[in-house]
Structure formats: C-alpha cells, structure tokens
Amino acid sequence: MNGQNRSDLNIGSRVKIVLKADQSTGKLTEGIVERILTKSSFHPHGIKVKLTDGQVGRVKEII
Questions:
Q1: What is the distance between the alpha carbons of residues 5 and 27, in angstroms, rounded to a whole number?
Q2: For 6-62, CATH number?
Q3: pLDDT in the model for residue 44
Q4: Residue 31 Cα to chain centre, angstroms
Q5: What angle is formed at CA 14 by the lines to CA 21 and CA 9, rounded to 5 degrees?
Q6: pLDDT tens-digit profile of 13-55?
Q7: DSSP for residue 14
C-alpha cells in the first residue's frame, strides 16, 4: 500500500516515510506510527505521521 489513504493506517503500523529533509533525495526512513497527523482521508503525497522515535514525515509505503 502506498500510504495515501488514512484508512489504511493504524497506530502501531510499520511504515516507510520520507522526511522533509529527504524529499529531494527520496530517502525512506522505517518506523512505527505513533500519531497520524493528517486529518483528511486522502493526501496525494502521503499521509503525514509521527513515528515512535519522534520523526515526522509522509508515508510512502506501508509494510
């Protein structure tokens, strides 16, 4: 799954996100979802989440 639909995500999901600083390179960071920050049900660039380690980014892949 590509992480554009909020309904596909749950707290505790293992995901790969792109951090704001890594948007130009597309480098992905893996982690566990602590909070879902995007309120809308869909976002074309990926739902924004906060990982358990505190990093924030947009979901590119749900593992």
A1: 21
A2: 2.30.30
A3: 97
A4: 9
A5: 90
A6: 999 999 999 999 999 999 999 999 999 999 999 999 999 999 9
A7: E
DSSP letter at 18? E
Residue with tokens 């995500």: 9
Structure tokens at 36: 């879902």
Rg (CA), the chain: 10
- At residue 1, the pLDDT reads 85
Read off the pTM: 0.93
Q: How far apart are CA 31 and CA 3, in angstroms?
A: 14
SS3 state of residue 8:
helix
How far is residue 41 from each of residues 3, 8, 23, 24, 58, measured CA to CA in Å? 11, 10, 22, 25, 14
